[in-house]
Structures are given as structure tokens and as C-alpha cells.
Design brief:
Blueprint lengths: L42 E20 L2 E17 L20 E8 L9 E4 L14 H13 L4 E7 H4 L10 H12 L3 E7 L17 H9 L4 E3 L5 E6 L14 H16 L7 E6 L14 H4 L16 H13 L35 H28 L6 E6 L12 H5 L12 H9 L2 E5 L6 H7 L5 H15 L3 E4 L7 H15 L7 E5 L9 H15 L7 E2 L5 E2 L5
Parallel strand pairs: 4-5, 4-13, 5-6, 6-9, 9-10, 10-11, 11-12, 12-13
Antiparallel strand pairs: 1-2, 2-3, 7-8, 14-15
Helix pairs in contact: 5-8, 8-10, 10-12, 12-13, 13-14
């Protein structure tokens, strides 16, 4: 027996000695000078009862290699009190940066997680600031420990192009993300890294504003057609127009080459973590990292209970128009190459009140079919180019690759599925627009990621009779089953009620029932104070246990703020 009467865990993380950094950084950068406002450092008392096990874990020892470490099967008891001068909420918040929190952890465990469907938690969008440093370091440390104690498999970390390669092309600052990955490893959590090549937020006044890199925006000023444009000439800078995918418009590099260089540098920088701590690379392919056009601003898509926009076709920049015109000339229909379809607008966003989207509209005419096939094919080609690059870059490395499809469901109950069409999904009541995308992901060994797992038709139809998130998701999941592709689910909204969690369980079972070899995981979006509020935390930890399907995991949280949960040694 090994007995530790008192174990003090320092929040400081020795990151600079972990591994070599293969990238160019400002020589004056000092990651140890971060000033984080957070509660006082927690103290832990712990006792361990250990027996030897046969499993082996690897830990980063130095820049020259890895050290294997024989692990042990342990019984761990930890009692922790997070002291703070700030009182608890009236609602009984258990946020790690809010008030007193006691953990009591008792569990027999091995380094392997329980069988079942692992749950990941997406980190706050602003977890890394413009200086490349982690915000609220101590709070993040305490939150990671709480997640690990609850049995969460890991965290989802969005790696923003606009922060890493911000100032000039080919100069990468990964430091904040290195710190997060090292912190996750220290807490026994896995990491999914999202290559976020899109804009975050609505503008400089948005607290989560992260634009594209400054040098890219300067190129956009010189050539506005690098941004998408709709029929009214409105530019969208969320993501570079895929009409210029392979053109050398970014300081002699094409956008696809630029994305590939970013991923390659990420691979070289984080190589010691790949397959050990970083287990998934999700490759962004459009706004919100989803393979779609920015048919309407992303911030509106997150508030579908307020807006059910038809969206606008994004085909009016000169690069998209050149492609459309060339395709029209190939079939001898020059007049079809001058722009997108007419009759797509309506103030009430009712497709039945438009000439193009109504049930007997021109979407189902030879011209409509030509345009929609070209528009969706351009999106598919963009996805394939990125998949090909990612597959080559991460080949031979034990990480899973994934890509995301948007959950655009608010006109799913109509014949034309208008808002799906403007987003680039040629999916109607007579045509399956998702199967070609899933087949493409499958060819390159990608996992499919999608949202809407917590949404129910009964709720949505009260606000919008055309909506059907369950119909959309069932179509997607059936195609995934047919193609034999692994799946990752996400929630669209911040719901933390039992009804939403039950729906996630129901839809995950719909996908995985009877399939033993197709893994399913779930990403909860996203971590914040709400998650750690007492009632929400109770529901969330119960959901994690239900997803794990393991009987060896026990969690208990009562008003004395005592948690009994699993924790990896």
C-alpha cells in the first residue's frame, strides 16, 4: 500500500520542457507571464491503494523521446476544497470559479475508460486570447479536474487560424494550444482538435470575435472577390470563397495549400501528443467548421427559434461566377451561367411564397437541377480537396479524422428543403443530398460529425411547422449506418435539461443499435458556468454515466457539494 496523507497539486504546468516546438515564435514570448484571475489554489488530500496492472501509458519526458510507464490499478480517495472569497450562487453553483466546492472521489479504476459512448466537452471559444495565452488558467485547471472526475473522456479544442497564423503567412504561434493540451494530459483528458479556418463572432464588438488572419483580410481588401457574395452584393467574410480554392491568391499560395500548411505545422508541433492525448483532428471545411456555404450568417443559425431564413445562394463572386459560366457553356446554355436563380426571396421566409422554392417551383426544372447540381458539386469538391490533404498529412498517425455537416432542418418538411439548398446540400423530397458527402468522408477514413441530437420535432413544429430536426437527423444517421462510418453527435443549443439528454440517448441508440463496430461519441457544446451550476451538473454527470454504459462508475452529488466519481490515476 502507498499512503499519501497530503498531496498538494500545483496549478503551474511545466510546458516548455515537454517537447520541442517546431514553429516560429516571437522570441520575447513568455508563456509563464500569464496573469489569470481565478480563485485561490485548491489543496487536495489523497490516499492510494495500488496493485500492479499490465497496461502501459506513455508520458512526455523530454524533447528527445517518450518514457513508458507501468501503470497500476488504484483506489483513489480525494477530498478537495476550493477556497474563494466569492460566495456561492443562490442556485447552488458548482462552477470551479464560483464559491466553495468539495469533491470526494472514491473509485476503483484502471487507465481505460468504461465501454460505451465517450462524452467530450467543447471548450469556450475564447479559451486562448489574441496574445496566444490561455485565459483564466486556474479556472481552466479546476474545470478540467471536474470533467475528469465526472468521467468525461476529453475536451474539444477549437484551434483558430485567425489566432495561430494571425500576423503574417507561415508564422505560427501555437503556445496557448500547447498549454491546453498539456493541461488536458495532466488531468487525464483526451483532446479533439478542430482546425478552425473560419471567422468566429459577428464583429469587433462581439466578445468572441476572432476574424480571419490579418494578412488574409488585407488580401480581401485588395481583392473583395475572395469573400463570398450573394445576389445583393453583400460580402461574407466568415470563410474564403471556395471558387478560389486552388488559385494562388494568398501570397502565392492557394487557400487549400494554406490550410494544408497549417495542418502540417500543427502535426509537426504536436507530434508528441498525437495518438496519446490528441485523439481526433476535426478539419474545418466552412463556416462554423461545417461543410457548407455561408448562406446566412452563422450567428443566426444558432438562434433557429428566432429566425428560419431561406438563405441566399453564395455564387456571385467572380471566381464562383467563372466556374458557373464555364459549366453552362459546356452544355450550350450560356444564359444559365450569369448568376444564381431568380425568385428566391421572401420577407416571411416561407418557401411556398417564392417562385424558385415553392412545391412546383423552378428548383425542379432543368435549369434548377443544373444550378443545384453545380452548386452542391462545388461544395463536395471543396470537401474532397481538404479531405485528401488531411488524409495525406496525418497518414500513419494514430488519430481519427472527422468533418462536420450542418444541421439545417427548418425547411425539412417542405418539398424543396429551401434552406438546405442555399447551404449547398442538394437534398429534396426526391433526392438524397447527404449520401454523396458521407461517401466522400468514408473514402478518406473520416468520422461524420453533426448537430441537432437534442432537438425534437414536437418542440420545433410549435415555432415552425416546416421544421423537422429528427427527420433530418434520421436521414443522416441511416446514411451513416449504410456507409459504415463512425459518428460524433453534438447539441445545437445550450440545453441542459433531462428531456434534451434523453433525446441524445435516443438518437445515439437509433444510430448504434445492433452495430458493434461503429463507434459513437458525443460532444457537449459547450463548457461554461452554466454547466457547473448545481442542477445542471447533476443532470450532466448522470448523462455521462448513461452514455458510458458502465456499471463500474458511480457518481453522487448532493447539497453538501460532495461528488463521488471516477478519476484516472
Amino acid at each position: 500500500m502507498i499512503l499519501l496523507n497530503r498531496l498538494i497539486l500545483s496549478p503551474n504546468c511545466p510546458l516548455s520542457q515537454c517537447f520541442p516546438i517546431h514553429h516560429r515564435l516571437n522570441p520575447n514570448h513568455n508563456s509563464s507571464s500569464m496573469a489569470i484571475a481565478s480563485p485561490s489554489t485548491p489543496t487536495f488530500s489523497a490516499s492510494f491503494r495500488c496493485t500492479r496492472a499490465q497496461s502501459t501509458r506513455f508520458f512526455l519526458r523530454s524533447s528527445t523521446g517518450l518514457r513508458s510507464h507501468r501503470t497500476r490499478r488504484c483506489r483513489l480517495t480525494i477530498s478537495s476544497r476550493l477556497n474563494s472569497s466569492k460566495p456561492s450562487d443562490a442556485g447552488g453553483s458548482v462552477s470551479p470559479d464560483n464559491g466553495d466546492l468539495q469533491y470526494e472521489l472514491q473509485h476503483e479504476f484502471s487507465p481505460q475508460r468504461s465501454k460505451g459512448s465517450p462524452v467530450f466537452v467543447t471548450l469556450p471559444m475564447d479559451v486562448v486570447n489574441y496574445s496566444g495565452k490561455v485565459r483564466r488558467w486556474k479556472t481552466m485547471l479546476q474545470s478540467f479536474r471536474a470533467l475528469a472526475a465526472a468521467g468525461v473522456e476529453g475536451v474539444v479544442m477549437e484551434v483558430w487560424w485567425g489566432l495561430v497564423e494571425r500576423e503574417e503567412p507561415g508564422v505560427y504561434n501555437w503556445q496557448g494550444y500547447i498549454d491546453i493540451v498539456a493541461l488536458a494530459r495532466r488531468c487525464g483528458l483526451k483532446v479533439q482538435a478542430v482546425m478552425a479556418f473560419h471567422q468566429c463572432g459577428t464583429g469587433p464588438g462581439d466578445p468572441y470575435w476572432i476574424p480571419l488572419p490579418q494578412w488574409v483580410l488585407e488580401e480581401m481588401k485588395r481583392d473583395p472577390d475572395l469573400a463570398f457574395s450573394d445576389r445583393l452584393g453583400r460580402r461574407n467574410t466568415e470563410y474564403l470563397s471556395l471558387g478560389c480554392d486552388i488559385l494562388p491568391v494568398l501570397h502565392g499560395r492557394s487557400p487549400i495549400q494554406t490550410y494544408a500548411d497549417f495542418m502540417r505545422n500543427f502535426r509537426d508541433t504536436f507530434r508528441p501528443f498525437l495518438g496519446l492525448t490528441i485523439t481526433v483532428i476535426q478539419v474545418g471545411m466552412g463556416p462554423a467548421s461545417e461543410l457548407r456555404y455561408p448562406s446566412c450568417p452563422s450567428h443566426k443559425l444558432t438562434r433557429t427559434w428566432q429566425s428560419h431564413e431561406l438563405g441566399e445562394f453564395q455564387c456571385y463572386d467572380k471566381y464562383m461566377l467563372a466556374s458557373l459560366n464555364a459549366c453552362a457553356r459546356e452544355i450550350g446554355m450560356h444564359e444559365w451561367g450569369n448568376g444564381g436563380p431568380l425568385g428566391t426571396e421572401n420577407l416571411t421566409h416561407n418557401p411556398e411564397h417564392t417562385e424558385f422554392f415553392k412545391s412546383n417551383g423552378s428548383w425542379n426544372t432543368p435549369y434548377g437541377k443544373f444550378f443545384l447540381e453545380w452548386y452542391s458539386r462545388m461544395l463536395l469538391l471543396h470537401g474532397e480537396r481538404i479531405c485528401k490533404e488531411a488524409e495525406s498529412i496525418f497518414r500513419g498517425i494514430e488519430v481519427n479524422k472527422s468533418a462536420k455537416v450542418a444541421g439545417i432542418h427548418w425547411h425539412y418538411g417542405t418539398q424543396s428543403h429551401a434552406s438546405e439548398l442555399t447551404a449547398g446540400y442538394y437534398n429534396t423530397w426526391i433526392r438524397d443530398g447527404y449520401l454523396p458527402i458521407i461517401r466522400m468522408f468514408c473514402r478518406y477514413g473520416f468520422t461524420l460529425c453533426s448537430t441537432c441530437f437534442e432537438m425534437q420535432d414536437a418542440d420545433e413544429k410549435q415555432k415552425n411547422p416546416f421544421s423537422s430536426p429528427e427527420g433530418f437527423l434520421r436521414q443522416l444517421l441511416l446514411n451513416a449506418r449504410i456507409c459504415g462510418i463512425p459518428l460524433t453527435g453534438e447539441n445545437s443549443g445550450p440545453s441542459l435539461d433531462d428531456k434534451s439528454f434523453r433525446q441524445v440517448l435516443r438518437m445515439s441508440k437509433f444510430y448504434s443499435d445492433g452495430l458493434e463496430n461503429l463507434p459513437f461519441s458525443f460532444n457537449f457544446v459547450r463548457m461554461g458556468k452554466n454547466l457547473f451550476q448545481y442542477d445542471n451538473w447533476v443532470r450532466f454527470t448522470r448523462f455521462v454515466r448513461q452514455m458510458s454504459n458502465g456499471n463500474n462508475f458511480r457518481a453522487k452529488l448532493d447539497f453538501s457539494m460532495k461528488v463521488a466519481a471516477a478519476c484516472a490515476c
